[in-house]
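Researcher: Please predict.
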Amino acid sequence: MVKPIDSSIKDEQLIQKRREQLQKGAVSLFTQKGFHRATTREIAKAAGFSIGTLYEYIRKKEDVLFLVCDAIYDEVKARMEAVFNTKETSEDTLYQAVKSYYELMDDMQDEVLVLYQELKALPKDAQEYVLEKERQMVHLLERVIQNNYPNLSSDQLTIIANNIFIQGQMWGFRRWMLQKEFSLEQYTNLQFELLKSQLELTRGG
């Protein structure tokens, strides 16, 4: 169980506001320098704080990384839940789920890059906490897939959902190459055609 991050401030709304500022500033800084090379003073400056103000909201530098990772997962999950239809059974529903997820990954490229580059710097219990949120997001994809392909085995469903999850992230991870060759729409349509081919093979088998 991950302990909550202590703050000397008692106003919960102010804590939320300041931590949102901190998360945004830290993502920008970590994208440029990485977590380990960034100093707490630089983190405070990126968030628009003094170093003294920073330590009113965190205990140590690793708390900033935890807040960043936690906030990224929460935002991705919330946006997936808002657009995924886990009840309809149509090819278009599956396409819209894949399309909206890829668009989300395009929109949050820097955040996702920071997440996977720096997650290993967190303590093991914190890593497990944020990765559990990822498992919940993969489960959303599994539900959409299963609605259209109910005969998939549990193992097939898990692998296919994880493939979609990673393909969305790959758009940002390999943007230096992929985005020179494809538009996001082209990438989405090509990946979906490959996904359909794979799913039809499993249905036929």
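Model: The chain is about 75% helix and 0% strand.
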